[in-house]
Each structure stands twice: as structure tokens, then as C-alpha cells.
Amino acid sequence: MIWWKRLWRRRQMEAQLEKELSFHLEQHTSQLIGRGIPPDEARRQARLALGGPEQVKEKCRDARGTRWLEDLLLDTRYALRTFRQKPGFTVVGLLILSLGIGATTVMFAVINSVLLRPLSYPEPDRLVSLRGFTEAFGELWGCSNLDFGDVKRESQTLALAAWTYGGGTISEPGEPEYVNGRQISAELFSTLGISPLPGRAFRLDEDRPGAAAVVMISYGLWQRDFGGQPNAIGSALVYDGKTYTVVGIAPAGFQLDGEADVFTPLEQRQDTDPRMQNRAARFLRVMARLRPGFGLAEARAELALIARHLAEEYPKSNAGLSMIPYPLEKELVGDVGSTLWLLLCAVGLVLLIACVNIANLLLARAVSRERELAIRVALGAGRGRLARQCLTESAILGVGGGLLGVVLAFVSIHPFVAFWPGSLPRAEEVHLDWRVLVFAVGTSLLSGLLFGLAPALRIPMRGVEQTLRAGARSIAGSSRRLHSAFVISEIALAVVLLVSAGMLGHTLLALSSLDPGFNLHNVMAAHFALSPGTLANPGKVREAWQDVLDRARRVPGVESVALADIIPMRKGENSVPYWTTATPPPPDQEPIALASCVTPGYLKVMGIPLRQGRFFNEHDRIGSEPVVVVDENLAQHAFGSKDAVGKRIWIPAMGTTPALVVGIVGHVRQWGLAADDQSRVRDQMYYPFAQVPAPLLHFFSSIMSFAARTTIPPLNVVEPLSRELRGVAGDQALYEVHTMEQLVSASLARQRFLLLLFGVFAGLALLLACIGIYGVLAYLTGQRVPEIGVRMTLGAKPLDVMRLVLGESLVMICVGVGVGIVAALAAGRILNRLVEGMRPADLSTFAITIPVLVIAALFASFVPARRASRVDPVSALRQQ
Amino acid sequence: MAPPKSDLPQGTLDLLILKVIALGPVHGYAIAQRLEQVSRGVVQVPEGSLYPALHRLENRGLLAADWKETETGREAKFYRLTRKGLKQLKTETADWQRLIYGIGLILQMADGGAE
User: Fold this and answer.
1) Which residues contact A849 (CB under 8 A, 6 or more apart)?
2) Which of A130, A395, A564, A753 has the most CB atoms lying inside 10 A of its own CB?
3) What is the CATH number of domain B6-114?
């Protein structure tokens, strides 16, 4: 019979077993009677020969092989019954567990989607991204267009594709709207292995300068501007003043470092962007797919070879440059990985505390059931059998908590992702899948096992007789040590989380009080798109920008205005090499500076202090001597203690004429309050927008931002500003408006987010630890009531009793804190490695967090201590 | 006084049961009796372990069982050997005989050495 059938027919099988054995007994008896033995005696002898019928039956049941399942059913039923009897215990246990498991599951679900699950492209493990590397700069994310072309032509192992950022104003169809764009090489979609639906990707002959203007649009734009109609394919789109034909729709959710609405062929950029022919301008992102039959190692070797050839051929731009393929997955995820694992660890600690708490409760219950267990052992129950029963009970509690936890995770995962600072890569892919469920079930069972172990191991085998003889008398001492160990570990875990949260808080405070290098109050900055009509006529670009500045200045509430291509702490940068003599050092030894192109008002708008010399004025224009203003770091690095004003610096990216240093300004924390100290490029220089040569004006106009200092809250001027700056054709727009306060605070978003979550986790840990201490002390003192009664009869005062109980808890707390501090120091090192600008754990952190914990813990032990001190000695003694 | 009975060596009960059942379908009590008779009381077969052993063998598919009427008209569970059981009986018998032969050789050698 198949095992499940046997299980199904349990009742029938029991009946048959009974029948078989009684048949045996009857046969034996009648045979004995036949030999002349009296019936009663015969029955007795037959029974003796067979042995105890119940034992035989039990062994037969064991022999069936489905015994474990039957036991499981029995144990489950028994466990459910005991849970029903103690609803308070069950509810508290389930609540604690579901919180712990739910939080852990959410963290795992995010990790699973962001870090573990393969990309949604076919054969994602064969996709790589190409990055450059030089000794001086370290890693470069970009590649120049000319290098890209050479590598694409020569590589046998990789099929390459490239893209870069863009954006512009769509004036038809629909209302004028600024959108993000990407310029992509024709191979991009085929390389990634996705196809546009409907429509098609670019053909190779369209990815050429001067080819027909074709465009692909995002699914979102298709829905928005074309109503999702299939006839959008072939219709016209006016983008940045140029009329394009729509040839394809990108799949929904398609991203290239964020979403974009318009995709144009990369090579068509040749007309307007001089960087396309500049080997030193590394502005393309290159992705590639390994060709069949080749692996990453072969691609790496081949790229090294190609890079060496390029370096020999073009030493000026490529000396020392190597190219390295990285798995694309890592590229897309970036450094959120460490944050995620950190949070999973933290939440795991909370879960661990929750488990210890429940273990405590179960242990207390197991001790009070010791007599029952001893009786069952005396009646022949095996130790394994009883342990299994204990574990079944805790596993059921675990699975119950796990189920609730999954529900909790399901509800809270999307709010959590939305809450993530900045944007979480691959956020749209975050959801619960089978792996998350397996994780949750595994975690639940493991927790169940964890907290069921202590009671299960305490099942008495020896000394059963003593236990039975002890009768109703208390046997609390036996589990005291284990209980204390639990409390100590809970406190230690809580200390780790509290100190970590304290360190993060301390760090955040220290970072927030750093001087950003500019006056961040009452400043707004936004991208600005000039009218596409103006851009088509380079002669008018300068006038148009001047007009924007003049009009903006007239808006009420605006104090001063400026243009800049780079805004501190916002995405986007331009790092260039510079030197102090006409003959540059070898390319990989040049110092690097961040170069911002600004108008004269910039210093005033940002409130950057002028240290020496002057800032730009209206006399710095095209034709006059090229000038730059440098920050104090650059002045120090390039010219030492000597006066930098009046010196010249050579900037290869800006031509052969050296620029005159006319002023020194304060350093700005460009890369964020936390990150700036560790950034590679710490020198800064400014050059005037008015000296940008005419052929570059079109390009610069696409990247310039508008900034204004205001006398009223800066966001209040956005609306009147937008109205004033719409332009004659009404197609100029401010977009992505930020205040500098927002940007500064966003630069600490990661630290703040971690602090918030660690704070929540630490609070939870503290609460759980206090519940644990309260529970254990209440239980232990409850067990000691008779002893306390004796003490009081012998003359102990209530105060003495309180001191006794509190002293006991204080010992546990102190040991826990001690262990916790050691563990917290270790945890602090991990935090130090993973979080930018992290301050090491210092005395003040401990001085603030530890007393909080000690006071809370003592408070939790106060209630049982008080109860013990009010014991009535007479009734306590009678209880015995 | 009756000679002391030996305990069954570990694992041999199954072999004996298979052997008894190989003679034809038989119920539990009859197996116990037959074992007792055939071994002439030399080997102690604990009746208490007979039934668990029968159930174990049935579970392993070496035995099959049917409920049939006995000569006295009572319903009893009759065990019979399956094909798998027959095969098992043959291999185990062979194993057992080889073992006895081997042990016998060793014992003879020891006697020879003493002479």
C-alpha cells in the first residue's frame, strides 16, 4: 500500500491490527485450554507470551513507516490545542515573530530583486559594460566616440553598443514639454536582446550623420502623446526644433540609467556635438554582449590588446588607458548593495532578539510542564519523541508568525521601496516571488527551531524520579542559568543596534554641521531649455541667454541670477586635466580639476566666499584674455603657498592658450557633504560662459542650468519665473527645480535613511529586550515566592527583597552590556567601511545609548521586583 | 530442567519468518507456532516482536496479506510471500549459509591448533 493510502486508512488499519492481535490471543488461549489449563489461567499465559498489547501495537505502528506523519498530525493537533488554551502567549508570540519575519522578508525581497535576480534581458550573464581605467583617474565610466568606433570594429569577442544622455523640448504633438532623451547606437536594442513593440529599432544606415531624422519613443510618451495608437509609427515628432519620424516604441519600463522618453541615433549627434570627434571626451556609456563561444576572460584579454594599440597610436589621449569589461548587473546596481546587506543584518538582529524572547517564553512554559513531561517519560515516551513534540509546537508558532510576516511584507514592500532615498535601481522589479517565499518559510522554520531548541533539550531523562517526587514544589533553579543567558544575549544584541544607531546619528549630526562651502539658504537651481528655434541660430544664443538673465532679475523676490553648467551636489560633472606650464606632464600624471562654466552672478547667487582677486565681470568675453577663477584647494596644490592670482594654467580641453587666474574662491563640497572628503577630484575651477567659443555654444546651451538667489522662499518664485521665461514662442521651460537646501539634504539621504531604519530597529530591539527582561524576572521571582516568603519571615524587609531582585537583573544587564559593547565595536568597523563619512564609535555615543538601555531594562525589572517585595510571607509559605 | 533457550541473533527473525511463509499462506499465530515447533524450543522467538516484524516486512513489500477464513471459520490475516520476498529469502539464505560455513571453518581451525 502506498504510504498516503495507509495514512488515509488509519482507522481501518487500527481496527485490523486490533483484530489480528485478538485473533492471536484467542487461538493461543483456546490451545492452552485444550491442554487442560483453566480458561482464566490460559488467557493470562497467552497475554504474557504476547507481551503488553499496547506496546506491541505501538511497535507495529512504528513498523508502518508513516509513523512520523501520524505523530506530526497528533503533535500539531496537540500544539494547536495548547495555543488555544493560552491565547495571550500565542498572540504576543505571533505578533513579535510576524514583525521580525515580515521586516526580514521585505529586506530580502528587495535584495532578491535588486542584487540576486538576473536582469530581465535574455542571457543577462553575457552582458557587460565597458569601462576605462587609468592610474591617475582610477575608473572612468565613459568611453570616447572614436575609441568606441575602433573597439567596435576590432573586437571579435564582443558586440558593442553605446549610448549617452540627452534631452530636449518636444513641441509637437501636444503641449511643449521638456523630456529626458538618450542617444543610442543602432546596435543597442539588438545587443540587449530586446525589440521594440510596435515598430522597429534603428537600422545601421540611420545611425549616421546626415541620415533621415528618425526617433524611438518610450512606452510612456506613446501613451501620453499618441494615445497608444499603432499609427504613431511613421508619424512626426518635433524634438528640439527638428522634425523626426517615429519608427519604434521602446518596451514599457525600459531604462538606461533612469527612464527617458526620446531615443535618437547617436551618430546624428555629429552635427552639433564636437565631442564626437574628440578622443579625450569620454562621454559614451558602452555596453556589449559576449559573442557566442567567448567568455569574459577572453574579452578582457582582447580589450587589453586593443587598448594598448590605441594607446600607441594616440598617446596624447589614450596613454595609460586600459579598458575593462564588467558584468552589467553589477554596473546597474552600483553601491546600494552594501546598504541593503547592512539593513538585512540589522533586521536579522531584531529577528534574533524576537526568537530569543519567544524561546524565553517557551522555556518558562516547558519548566512548568516538567512534571507532565516526567510522567510521560515514566510511561515510556522516548526522548526523541518528546523533543519532536516540542519542536513541532515551536515550528507551528514559527510558521504561523511567518505567514503573518509574509502578509505584512506583501503590504509594506511597495511603500518601503517608494521610501528609498533617490531611486533604487531596478525598483520596478521589486516584488515577492517564490524565492522570497522560500526565504520566508525557511526563516520561519529556522526561527521555530531556534526557539524550540532550548525547551526541547531540557526534556528530563535522568532524575525523572526526583522530578516526580518534587511534586508541586518549584524547580525554578534548574533553568535559571539558561534564562539569564537569554536575557544577556538579548541585551547584547540590543546594545549592538543601539550603538550602531547612535553612531549613525552622531555621524549625521557631524556631517550636517559641515560647511558646504556656499550659502545654501534661499537658492534655487533648475535646468533650463532655450527655445529650439533659438538654438538653431548660433548667433542668437548668447543674446537669448542674456535675455533670460535680464528677465529673471526683474521677477519680484529674485535677488541675483546666474547660469552654470554644474550645480553642487547635483548629478553631472566635468573634470578636466590642467597644468601650470605649457609642456604637460605624461597624461596620467596631470592633476584633475572640476571645471564649471558660469556667468558673473554665480558667486553671489551661491554665496561662495571670494578669498583673493576678483570674480568674472562683463569684460571677460570672447576675444579678451581667457580667465579662470580657482578654489583654494587648486591654488594650494598647483602653486603651493605662492600667490596664485596672476599665474597662468594650461587646460588642454580648452585649447592651447593658457588661462589667467584672476581670483581664488572657497572650496565647495561638490560631491555631497559626506562624500566630498573622499572624492578623487578635489580641485575646482570656474571659467566664464561668455568665453565659450561660438561652435560650442549650442552644446553648452543644452547643459546650462539656471540658478537664482531669492529674498522669499525660493520655490515661491518658480511659478512667476516660469511665466516670465517662457519666451516668445512659449516653448522655453524650467525643469527639475531644486533648492540648494534640498540638494544638500539629499546628499545625506543615505545616511539619514540608514539612521531612520537603524533607529526603528534599535527601538524595536530595546522594546523586545525589555519585554524579555520583564518576562524572565516575573517568571523567576514567581518561582521564588516561597523562598522570598522564608526570607521575609526571617526578617527581610520589602526593600531587601527588591534589592535582591533588582540586583539579579542588574548583573544580567551589566554582563549583557559588556558583551554588547565588544560586539558593537566590531559592528562599528563594518559600518565605517560601508557608509561614507562614518564617524567611528566614540565615548559620547556609548555614553548616550548605554544608559538609555540600562534605565529601560531596570524599569522593566522594577515591576516584578515590586511584586516580589509585596509577597505576603504567610500565604507564600502556605503555597509550599 | 529445560535447557536454556538462545536468543535469536540480530536480523535473523525476518529470515525465519520469510522461510515459514514461503511454505504457503499462513496467519500470525500459525507462524509463531511453526517457529516454536520447528526450532524444537531451542530458539526463543519473542511473540511480541513477531507482529512488528510482519508489519515491517509487509511495509517493505516482501509480504502481502489477505483476510481469509480459517478452517474454524474465523477471519484471519494470512501472509504470503511476494516475488520480491522470495528473492530476498534466497539471497538471505545464501548469505546465512555462507556465514555459517565461514564461521565453521574458523572454529575448526581453532580446534586443529589446539591439538
Assistant:
1) A495, A498, A499, A501, A502
2) A130
3) 1.10.10.10
Contact A654, A725 (CB under 8 A): no
A503 lies in the same domain as A541: no
What are A65's three cell numbers? 513507516
Could you tell me if A256 and A394 lie in one domain?
no
Asked if B59 and A65 come within 8 Å (Cβ–Cβ), the reply is yes
3-state secondary structure of A166: strand
List the single residue in A26, A60, A65 with the smallest CB-CB distance to B51.
Answer: A60
Contact (Cβ atoms closer than 8 angstroms) between residue A326 and residue A115 = no
Chain B residue with the nearest C-alpha to that of A54: B48
Q: Count CA atoms within 13 Å of residue A327 on its CB side.
A: 11
Distances (CA, A) of A357 to A347, A390, A610, A658, B75: 15, 16, 60, 71, 58
Q: How many CA atoms lie within 13 A of A147 on its CB side?
A: 32
Q: How many CB atoms lie within 10 A of CB A315?
A: 12
Residue among A224, A251, A222, A223 nearest A234 (CA): A222
Give the chain B residue nearest A27 (alpha carbons).
B29
- Number of domains comprising chain A: 4
The string of pLDDT tens digits covering residues A801-856 is 888 888 888 898 999 999 999 999 988 888 888 777 777 777 888 888 889 888 98
Task: Judge whether A261 and A180 are in contact, CB under 8 Å.
Answer: yes
Which residues of chain B lie closer than 8 angstroms to A19, CB-CB?
Answer: 75, 77
Of A319, A346, A381, the last residue of a domain is: A319
Residues A828/A846, Cβ–Cβ less than 8 Å: no
Count Cα neighbours of B24 within 13 Å in the Cβ-side half-sphere: 2
For residue A158, the cross-strand partners are A290
A32 falls within a domain: yes
Sequence-ordered list of residues with C-beta below 8 angstroms from that of A653, at least 6 positions apart, any chain? A280, A576, A577, A595
- pLDDT by residue (tens digit) across A500-541? 888 888 888 888 888 889 998 999 999 888 887 787 777 788
Structural domain includes residue A743: no
- Residue A823 domain-assigned (yes or no): yes
- Alpha helices by DSSP H, listed for A585-739, are 602-606, 632-639, 694-703, 718-724
Q: Is A523 left (phi over 0), alpha (psi -120 to 50) or beta?
A: beta
Residues of B with CB under 8 A from a CB of A: 27-29, 32, 46-49, 51-53, 55-56, 59, 67, 74-77
Closest A-chain CA to B52 = A60
Amino acid at A33: I
- A862 and A817 within one domain: yes
- Is there a contact between A50 and B47 if contact means CB atoms under 8 Å apart? yes
Task: State the nearest Cα–Cα gap between B96 and chain A, in angstroms.
Answer: 24
Task: Report the alpha-carbon distance of residue A63 to residue A492 in Å, rounded.
Answer: 48
Same domain, A312 and A340: no
The burial class, CB within 10 Å (0-12 / 13-18 / 19+), for B50 is: buried
Pairing of strands A683-688, A733-739: unpaired
pTM of the entire predicted model: 0.66
Domain check: are A550 and A454 in the same one? Answer: no
- What is the extent of the structural domain holding A278? 136-319
Hey, where are the domains in chain B?
6-114
Flag whether A612 is in a domain: yes
Which value does ipTM take for this structure? 0.83
> Is there a single domain that holds both residue A508 and residue A653?
no
Q: How far is B52 from chain A (nearest CA, A)?
A: 4
Q: Which residues of B58-82 are buried (b: 16+ CB within 10 A; e: fewer)?
A: bbeebbbbeeeeeeeeeebbbbebe
Q: How far is B98 from chain A (nearest CA, A)?
A: 29
- Asked whether residue A10 falls in the same domain as residue A46, the answer is yes
For residues A537 and A502, membership in a common domain is answered with no
| pLDDT tens string A232-283 | 899 999 887 788 999 999 887 777 777 788 999 988 877 777 778 888 778 8
